[in-house]
Amino acid sequence: MVKIGDIELGDFPLLLAPMEDVSDPPFRALCKKHGADLMYTEFISSEGLIRDAAKSLKKLDIFEYERPIGIQIFGGDIESMKQATEITAAANPDIIDINYGCPVKKVVCKGAGSGILQDIPKMVRLTAEIVKSTNIPVTVKTRLGWDENSKFIVDVAERLQDVGIKAISIHGRTRKQMYKGEADWSLIADVKNNPRMHIPVFGNGDVTTPEKAKENKEKFGVDGVMIGRASIGYPWIFNEIKHYLKTGEHLAKPSLQERIDAVKQHLNMAVEWKGEKLGLLEMRPHYGNYFKSIPNFKEYRTQLVTRNNLEEVNEVFRLIEQDLLSNV
After folding, report:
1. How many CB atoms lie within 10 A of CB 212?
2. Which of 70, 290, 315, 322 would be a feasible disulfide site paired with 95, CB 3.0-4.6 Å?
């Protein structure tokens, strides 16, 4: 049984990665429905929380059916991160996660996200201060290192464990790699196999199929896997992996009707949570992912991303059901 603090997650938990503009409550609801064991919010700026920025505060919204749920925060200033931890704790998450992995320039240039991988002593001090400032279990998501010459993750993970984190998720790339090339899981395995490590070690990067999840479990010995990009528009991946690990067989792929039902649920929850205008706008990038590889879908996608009210978008879905389902 894998545990983060007192939180039981099963024998080989599947985690939904925190993803900006993706892992919001509407999308998390679908991932939970389809088998995610632990989910994280989009990352939240510590400075935004302190300033009461509406967008940052909105990301603190969590719901009982999502539990266990972690809220992820980022920032490069120790005092700001301590204050943000107090604000985050008031939202009553099960876990507070620190983002030391985001490679985006506007985050990194402030010494936040994977930017802190250039200053490991500060990373350790910051983590220690956050752990001391809350009774909620603290976890970390990070990368192998800043670049090819600074992949110190085995030592870093041990030092973070020593100051009190309860689990670590490691993306198998450096900051310099961004999302290019293949994720290197051998160093994640070195962290897991370090005899001094006793907290759960989760691997992240290129878990795109049930076979890949099984290979990573068996070859590298991680406690679970964190899934990011492969879940976008495809929340079914969690149950597909679970079924494959248990039986060695593949679940049937979701039907076109199931895809339509899922995207409509996602859309309706997005509109309910964000309001019609923003909900419709932020759903637009998702349609292509939900209907990837569906033939003759391009014209409908164009209609979906150009309609400006919910009634018109639902009319497009009625057309999709009428036209495409009749040909299935």
Report:
1. 17
2. 70
Predicted TM-score of the model (pTM): 0.94
Residue 302: count other Cβ atoms within 10 Å of its Cβ. Answer: 12
Closest by Cα among 79, 97, 114, 115 to 167: 97
| 281 CB burial (10 A radius; 0-12, 13-18, 19+) | middle
Contact 231, 16 (CB under 8 A): yes
* Cβ-based neighbours of 110, under 8 Å, separated by 6 or more: 75, 76
Coil, strand or helix at 68: coil
Q: Could you report how far apart the first and last alpha carbons of the chain are, in Å?
A: 43
Tell me the percentage of the chain whose pLDDT exceeds 90. 81
Q: Which domains does the chain have, with CATH numbers?
A: 3-247 (3.20.20.70), 256-327 (1.10.1200.80)
- 92's enclosing H/E stretch is none
What pLDDT, on a 0 to 100 scale, did the predictor assign at position 328?
Answer: 53
Range scoring the smallest mean pLDDT among 55-64, 203-212, 231-240:
55-64
- 109 in active site: no
The SS3 of residue 209 is coil
What is the DSSP code (8-state) at residue 309?
S
What are the backbone angles phi and psi of residue 111, rounded to the nearest 5°?
Answer: 75, 20
| Active-site option among 29, 36, 38, 102 | 102
pLDDT confidence of residue 162: 98
pLDDT at 180 over 70: yes
Q: Please compute the mean of the pLDDT values over residues 30-39 and round it to a whole number.
A: 98
